[in-house]
Design a protein that fits this description.
About 75% of the residues lie in helices and about 0% in strands. The chain is an all-alpha fold.
Length: about 240
């Protein structure tokens, strides 16, 4: 199995993202040791996963992270692939995640939605923590879960051709991904420019998910978020 297919394997995605999951959990605790869940709930996607667990009476600090691990482990078992991790593949995934952020930065500059007011330096670490969680959990919900579910419904239930089902799934997931940042679900007031950018970014990330898998897509999202909040924290 070559690198291209190897990097898409659920097991590699799990091992690749596990440090980011742990970094987010630990970072949220460092920012707010008394109430880390309050800090984590700034990531709406994380909050949605925690709400899902609460339907079954389960609450806990690590449950959303456990959800990612369970999904990827089950997917790996069902795939019948070997339990072998290639460390060279993980290194390649890191480099590939970084490369795929470049079109996002160009798109961001073109849409001109970058904030003109830098974040205070005192908030930089907190914003990095939130950015890490957002990249991992938003890709979990809007790509790994939602696109997969939409493809199943459109193709298997509604009998739409596979290529059209994929296109519609990516588009619907991208619109919902963009919309969830705004009130009432998210905390931001609606802005047309940022909505367009996030929808286009969602389409880009959705296509990346289909071709390169969850691990690389989430890694790309995290790197992009962290670089943006870091640049915003640098005084002009």
């Amino acid at each position: 199995m070559g690198y291209i297919e190897d990097a898409r394997r659920p097991l590699h995605s799990l091992v690749y993202l596990l440090p980011l999951i742990l970094a987010y959990e630990i970072g949220a605790w460092m920012v707010n040791p008394s109430q880390p869940i309050v800090q984590q709930d700034r990531v709406i996607a994380y909050h949605l996963v925690r709400m899902f667990w609460s339907l079954f009476g389960a609450t806990g600090f690590f449950l959303p992270g456990i959800a990612i691990i369970i999904i990827l482990l089950v997917t790996h078992v069902l795939s019948g692939q070997p339990w072998k991790v290639h460390w060279s593949t993980l290194l390649g995934m890191g480099g590939e995640s970084f490369v795929w952020t470049l079109p996002l930065f160009l798109l961001y500059r073109w849409i001109r939605v970058m904030s003109s007011t830098p974040s205070p330096r005192s908030e930089w670490f907190e914003n990095v923590v939130v950015s890490t969680g957002a990249g991992v959990y938003e890709e979990m919900i809007f790509r790994l879960i939602l696109i997969t579910a939409l493809v199943i419904v459109l193709e298997d239930v509604l009998r739409i051709k596979k290529d059209k089902a994929l296109i519609w799934s990516v588009l619907i997931a991208a619109i919902l991904f963009s919309a969830h940042h705004y009130e009432p679900l998210g905390g931001e007031p609606y802005r047309f420019g940022s909505f367009v950018f996030r929808t286009l970014a969602g389409i880009y990330l959705g296509a990346m998910f289909l071709f390169r898998g969850y691990g690389i897509t989430a890694g790309c999202h995290v790197i992009y978020n962290v670089v943006v909040v870091t640049l915003d924290a640098i005084p002009p």
